[in-house]
Each structure stands twice: as structure tokens, then as C-alpha cells.
From TrEMBL:
SUPFAM superfamilies: UDP-Glycosyltransferase/glycogen phosphorylase (SSF53756). This is Alpha-1,4 glucan phosphorylase. One of its GO terms (cellular component) is cytoplasm. Pfam families: Phosphorylase. Belongs to the glycogen phosphorylase family. It catalyses: [(1->4)-alpha-D-glucosyl](n) + phosphate = [(1->4)-alpha-D-glucosyl](n-1) + alpha-D-glucose 1-phosphate. The keyword Phosphoprotein applies. The keyword Electron transport does not apply. It comes from Pitta sordida.
């Protein structure tokens, strides 16, 4: 979620009043804003997407709740020591959190372990361990519409009789100390992005948030007029018309068997009825196609922790497979491929398959990704129910990612096209009229230059490096991962360095290359990549032959509040994942909206950005998905590229020989070995095209006016990438609610008694 103060002032229309009031007290609002800690309760794009979605849902007047876990420790703070990443605990609650309100009156029990007893009345889950879920509510204000929604985060608490009922009679002290075991559930965020780690505590977290949330939803449903008991029909008939639950990836997949457990075991609905309601309630968003990221929980772990849920999953699977066997007799391989249970070695539950079978809608997050989901990853399921599969291209909130972080540009745009674009970003197309307006071109360039100077001052303060603000700011910020190919950027840096040294007199367009992002603590290769970037920076930044032509900076502790500083100052946005690996990306959209040009592959939402702005207004290079597929078919041989490309050979030889690590010549052996022998993401295959494309970038940067015209065309084409547009599509195509742009009256104005506060009855 990042910081809340400035976003709240903007959405409430209070920023100028607050700035003025604080100024009159002899204080500086910006200084105050810098004191607030980021709420970093997610890992990368997926968590930030949820935050943008909350802002858009409130702005569109949807009665929507965001549910999650109130981690005591969020994503770790990253320190760089001697070029290595070092993790520190993110004690973000140390000074309290003024935005949250504990709601002990809504505390709910969550059960674990135990056993299942079958009787005539049905299944009973007994002898369980109980953990309490304590909700904390954070307000989510819509933009200037007097609407405030709720984000409800659950914290784990031990019940007061925890460990005191049974065995521990004698050791009271130890029993109280053991309360920590229960409360550890909400202690810390698992720091993996696009990687599955099958730990018991993680499964506990996933079930904890799901069980608490579903009880909360059902309590609210029963308390509403829709849930009123009717002697004729089942109480829950209207449930899917009143409740829509969107599964943000498979992490909350246990919600499907949990809702079935509630309906069948507790509410005593017949299976068929319960399953129909469940399917109509859930929809699933897929966020990745990387196989190592797909959740596959060992059956024996689920059996120990959630025995009843395993039985329910088996029953869901049996009925699912019976259905497929009827449609495709004798096709045992299809049954194996489509089963929720993977046999062989340790039996595992494929959570994505569970989500597809248990949902009425499945979507990818960009056109190209949704196609890959349909035709490759889940092709058997798409063949069975093609109408279930959709696309919902991601978006970003223009409130945080333009108004808040780039007020200069936001104001400049408002002067030309009015202020309405903030709620309807498609209006940015009106800027096309000004693409040849010399004054506007100069003003856009001036805002960018001011942002760069401001960020350069920040860098000099934080990193003690002198930055040339007229150099091209070439920025690559995102989680560190092999598929995102920070290594390819690093090879380009080395290539530029070698070119400067080969001919110091030759014209070179000055660059400040800024790379930032966190590596999962257990991801060895990602940590080596950070060390390599810092080792290269050490050499480049201290070579007098290079001077101010080339500077390399690794941005420490990349997070939302830092993104808000660097993105408005960026000239060139790096979006260079191997085609077919980045589901969408959202950083790409933030840079586009803030006046950077993109160098990127035809991957994720880059494809649609090129479609909107015109491919000639992005720097597109490299293999397309088809080329990658073809190269896989032929077999990727890294050695061929190394032998054919002298500049690539030189760069690799320097890394290998210890040119960047003279005290430890073999330091980067693992990296070099990976690049040659098991590089799944084919860095060498795109290196040549990337370097050539970067030459085109430098050439255009020399012509400030031509560059800025492309910038304006990009901003004018960024309207599609508002999360408001994304949420309208979810609302209409999946949740079946109508967004409203009604501004409800403020609390101090009397309202007509007849006026319904929420135009849509349905909660998402």
C-alpha cells in the first residue's frame, strides 16, 4: 500500500488546505510525509495491483472490501553492504499505525489440525486447535466522491485458554509463552515473488485469511435484508447475486473448499446446490505462467493441517474427473493432465486447477498473457469451457501514480485538457492535439528536467555520488529475477563502458543507469546479480576515462515511496523480460504515464502499450513469443552467440576473469555458468538486438524535441492503463455490478431519505 497520508489528502481534496495549514505552523508538509513508513505487505506487482484496485473500486463507488493479513513484519528492508543484499526486519508498526482501527468485536475463530468424524448427520471436524482472527480496518477513500471503503486485515491471536485446557496443567508460564506459536501466523510476510515455497506456516497463513474472510462475508450476508430466512427457498440462493469473491492468484484458493465446508457441513446444503453457489461466487485471476511459481501443496501436509478440506478437494476432483471421462472416454492422459491431484513422487494438489474448476470466470492480466493461459498453460480447461476464460489487462491508479508523485506534470496536463482526466484517463488522448505545440513540448521537457534535478539531489544526499541531471536517466526497477533479465541490462552497461574506453573522444550520450529491486532471500542467483551490478558500478563510477559519461547506481530498498520519486525522473524505462514470461507488468504503465520512453520486448502489457501509442513510439526489440518457441524447439545454444559477437565475448570474459572482482576472480562463476549452460531466459539471444536498440535510444535522446514529442504521444496513449478501466471491466464482465460516478453527499449535508447510499447492492 505504501504511504497513506498524501493519498488521503488528495482523494479528500484537502491537500492544498493541509499544505497551507502546516506551512503556517512553520513546518514543511514534505518533511512530515517522509516520516511515514511504507506499508509493504506484499511482494511485487501482485500486491501493488491489489492496492491500485482498492483505490479504483472506491473511486467507482463499488461496495468492495480488500481482505488480507496484517503482517507484523512486511517485506524486508534491503541494505547493500559491500555490494551484497542484506535483509533487515521491516518493523513497520514500531511507532504505531494511525490509519488502522482494531475491531475486536468482529474477532473470529479459525481451526487447524484435528480429525474428521462421519455420522448420519454428516461430517464433523473435531479436536481442532483454534486461533483467533482479529480484524484491523483501514479506510480506503475514493477520489473526491465522499465514498470510503474498507481494507480489513486479519491479525492472529491465541485464545485465552490456549494450551491451558489440556496437557499443560502444571506449566502455566510455558503455556502462556506458547501463545506465540498461534500468533506467529501473522508475524511475517514470505518474501518470494513468482516462486512457490511449500512451508506449513505459509499454508496456515493462506487458510487463516480465507477462513476469517469467509466467516465475515457470511455474517454480513446473513445480517443484510438479502439473507433473511425464507421458509420456501434456501437462505443462500441469492448469495452469488449479492457476493462476488475475486481470488488474487491461487494464494487464497483454499476459499473454495472452505466455502463448500461451510455450506455442506454447517449449513447442511446438498452438495450440488453448494457447488453451484460456490462456482457462481468465485472468480480467479492468474498472475504468472512460470512453473516454479505455481502452488502445488503436498497432500500429506494438507491432510495434517486441514483434514476435512482434503476430503472435500478429493470429492470435487472425483466429480470433475467423472465429468471429463464422460466427455472423453478412454482418454486417461487427459484425466491425468486435468486432475486436481498430481500423482508421482509426493502427491500434490494443483491449486490453479482447483481455482479453475471452482470458479465461473478465469482471467489473465494482459492480452498476450491471457492467450498463453488459454492455449498453453490451461489448454485442456479452455477447450472444455472456452467461455470461462477472459482477459483483464492490468492498470494503475492515476491518483497515486500521477497526481501524487508528479504534480508538475499533472498540472500541466490539466491546463491543456481540464481536470476531469483524473477520473477518466482516456481523456489523455486530447493531448494529441498538442504534440506539435512548441510551448507545450518545452513545458513537458521542463517538468521532466525539474523532476530529474530533484531526484539527482536525493541521490547525492543518499549515495554521495555526483549525478549529471542532463544525462539520460535509464531506469530498471522491479523485483530481481532471472526472467526480468537485469543481467542483460548489466551486459549493456559493460558494453557501453568498453566502448567509452576504446574511444574516449567519440561522442557518447551520457547516461545514469539506475537499477533497483529486492531479491528473495533464498534466491542465490538473484543475489549474485545484485552483487554483479554493484561490482560493475564500482569499476565504472571510479574510472577517470569515463568521468560523468556513465554512472551506475543500485537503488537500495526499492519500495512504493521510492518508486514515487524515481519514476517521474525517468527518461528510459527498461521492460526487457523474455517474451512470454512477464504476465503484464505495471511499472511499465507508471513510466509511460510519467513521461518516460520504453525500451522493451513484446511481452506482457508492453504489447498493448505499443498498440495504443504506435510501435514507432516505443523502442521494441528482440524475440517475440513465436521466436522463443522456435528457439526452444531448435535448442538454445548460448555458445553460438558468444562466439559470434565480440562485444558480448569481451563483457563475459571480463566477468569471468575477475575484471570486476579482482580480489575474488571466481566470484561470478555461477552467473557465467548459468548464462552458458542453463539460461532459461536466453539473455544472449536478445543481447545484440538490445544493444542496437539502445543505440537508437541514444541517437533520439540527442534530439530533445523529437524525444519529447514521442513522450507526449506516449502520455496521450496511456489512458487505457488506468486501473479504473480495469475495474470497470471486472465489474461488468465478472462481478455483474454497475460502477457509479455518483458523488454521494458529504456527511454534513442532509440526504433524501429515499436515496440509497450504495447504488449497487452487490459487494465485490
Amino acid at each position: 500500500m505504501g504511504r497513506t497520508l498524501q493519498n488521503t489528502m488528495i482523494n479528500l481534496g484537502l491537500q492544498n488546505a493541509c499544505d497551507e495549514a502546516v506551512y503556517q505552523l512553520g513546518l514543511d508538509m514534505e518533511e512530515l510525509e517522509e516520516i511515514e513508513e511504507d506499508a509493504g505487505l506484499g511482494n511485487g506487482g501482485l500486491g501493488r495491483l491489489a492496492a491500485c484496485f482498492l483505490d479504483s473500486m472506491a473511486t467507482l463507488g463499488l461496495a468492495a472490501y480488500g481482505y488480507g493479513i496484517r503482517y507484523e513484519y512486511g517485506i524486508f528492508n534491503q541494505k547493500i553492504r559491500d555490494g551484497w543484499q542484506v535483509e533487515e526486519a521491516d518493523d513497520w508498526l514500531r511507532h504505531g499505525n494511525p490509519w488502522e482501527k482494531a475491531r475486536p468485536e468482529y474477532m473470529l475463530p479459525v481451526h487447524f489440525y484435528g480429525r474428521v468424524e462421519h455420522s448420519a448427520t454428516g461430517a464433523k471436524w473435531i479436536d481442532t486447535q483454534v486461533v483467533l482472527a482479529l480484524p484491523y480496518d483501514t479506510p480506503v477513500p475514493g477520489y473526491m466522491n465522499n465514498t470510503v471503503n474498507t481494507m480489513r486485515l486479519w491479525s492472529a491471536r491465541a485464545p485465552n485458554d490456549f494450551n491451558l485446557r489440556d496437557f499443560n496443567v502444571g506449566d502455566y508460564i510455558q503455556a502462556v509463552l506458547d501463545r506465540n506459536l498461534a500468533e506467529n501466523i501473522s508475524r511475517v510476510l514470505y518474501p518470494n515473488d513468482n516462486f512457490f515455497e511449500g512451508k506449513e506456516l505459509r499454508l496456515k497463513q493462506e487458510y487463516f485469511v480465507v477462513a476469517a474472510t469467509l466467516q465475515d462475508i457470511i455474517r454480513r450476508f446473513k445480517a443484510s435484508k438479502f439473507g433473511s430466512t425464507d421458509t420456501v427457498r434456501t437462505v443462500f440462493d441469492s448469495f452469488p447475486d449479492q457476493v462476488a469473491i475475486q481470488l488474487n492468484d491461487t494464494h487464497p484458493a483454499m476459499a473454495i473448499p472452505e466455502l463448500m465446508r461451510i455450506f455442506v457441513d454447517i449449513e447442511k446444503l446438498p452438495w450440488e446446490k453448494a457447488w453451484d453457489i460456490t462456482k457462481r461466487t468465485f472468480a480467479y485471476t492468474n498472475h504468472t505462467v512460470l512453473p516454479e511459481a505455481l502452488e502445488r501443496w503436498p497432500v500429506d501436509l494438507v491432510e495434517k493441517l486441514l483434514p476435512r478440506h482434503l476430503q472435500i478437494i478429493y470429492e470435487i476432483n472425483q466429480r470433475h474427473l467423472d465429468h471429463i471421462a464422460a466427455l472423453f472416454p478412454n482418454d486417461v492422459d487427459r484425466l491425468r493432465r486435468m486432475s486436481l491431484i498430481e500423482e508421482g513422487g509426493t502427491k500434490r494438489i494443483n491449486m490453479a486447477h482447483l481455482c479453475i474448476v471452482g470458479s465461473h470466470a478465469v482471467n489473465g492480466v494482459a492480452k498476450i498473457h491471457s492467450e498463453i493461459v488459454k492455449t498453453q498453460v490451461f489448454e485442456d480447461f479452455a477447450e472444455l469451457e472456452p467461455e470461462k476464460f477472459q482477459n483483464k489487462t492490468n492498470g494503475i491508479t492515476p491518483r497515486r501514480w500521477l497526481l501524487l508523485c508528479n504534480p508538475g506534470l499533472a498540472e500541466l496536463i490539466a491546463e491543456k485538457i481540464g481536470e476531469d482526466y483524473v477520473r477518466d484517463l482516456s481523456q489523455l488522448t486530447k493531448l494529441h492535439e498538442f504534440v506539435d505545440d512548441d510551448l507545450f513540448i518545452r513545458e513537458v521537457a521542463k517538468v521532466k528536467q525539474e523532476n530529474k534535478v530533484k531526484f539527482a539531489l536525493y541521490l547525492e544526499k543518499e549515495y554521495k555520488v555526483k549525478i549529471n541531471p542532463s544525462s539520460m536517466f535509464d531506469v530498471h526497477v522491479k523485483r530481481i529475477h532471472e526472467y526480468k533479465r537485469q543481467l542483460m541490462n548489466c551486459l549493456h552497461i559493460i558494453t557501453m563502458y568498453n566502448r567509452i574506453r576504446r574511444d574516449p573522444t567519440k561522442l557518447f550520450v551520457p547516461r545514469t543507469v539506475i537499477i533497483g529491486g529486492k531479491a528473495a532471500p533464498g534466491y542465490h542467483m538473484a543475489k549474485m546479480i545484485i552483487k554483479l551490478i554493484n561490482a560493475v558500478a564500482q569499476v565504472v563510477n571510479n574510472d577517470p576515462m569515463v568521468g560523468s559519461k556513465l554512472k551506475v547506481i543500485f537503488l537500495e530498498n526499492y519500495r512504493v515511496s521510492l518508486a514515487e520519486k524515481v519514476i517521474p525522473a525517468t527518461d528510459l524505462s527498461e521492460q526487457i523480460s523474455t517474451a512470454g514470461t512477464e504476465a503484464s507488468g505495471t511499472g511499465n504503465m507508471k513510466f509511460m504515464l510519467n513521461g518516460a520512453l520504453t525500451i522493451g520486448t513484446m511481452d506482457g502489457a508492453n504489447v498493448e502499450m505499443a498498440e495504443e501509442a504506435g510501435e514507432e513510439n516505443l523502442f521494441i526489440f528482440g524475440m517475440r513469443v513465436e521466436d522463443v518457441t522456435e528457439l526452444d524447439r531448435k535448442g538454445y545454444n548460448a555458445q553460438l552467440y558468444y562466439d559470434r559477437l565480440p562485444e558480448l565475448k569481451q563483457a563475459i570474459d571480463q566477468i569471468k576473469s575477475g575484471f570486476f572482482s579482482p580480489k575474488e576472480p571466481n566470484l561470478f562463476n555461477d552467473v557465467v555458468n548459468m548464462l552458458f549452460h542453463h539460461d532459461r531466459f536466453k539473455v544472449f539471444a536478445d543481447y545484440e538486438a538490445y544493444v542496437k536498440c539502445q543505440e537508437k535510444v541514444s541517437e533520439l535522446y540527442l534530439n530533445s524535441k523529437a524525444w519529447t514529442k514521442k513522450v507526449i504521444r506516449n502520455i496521450a496513449a496511456a489512458g487505457k492503463f488506468s486501473s479504473d478501466r480495469t475495474i470497470k471491466e471486472y465489474a461488468r464482465d465478472i462481478w455483474h455490478v454497475e460502477p457509479s460516478d455518483l458523488k454521494i453527499p458529504p456527511p454534513n449535508e442532509p440526504r433524501d431519505a429515499g436515496q440509497d447510499k450504495t447504488p449497487n447492492g452487490t459487494a465485490a
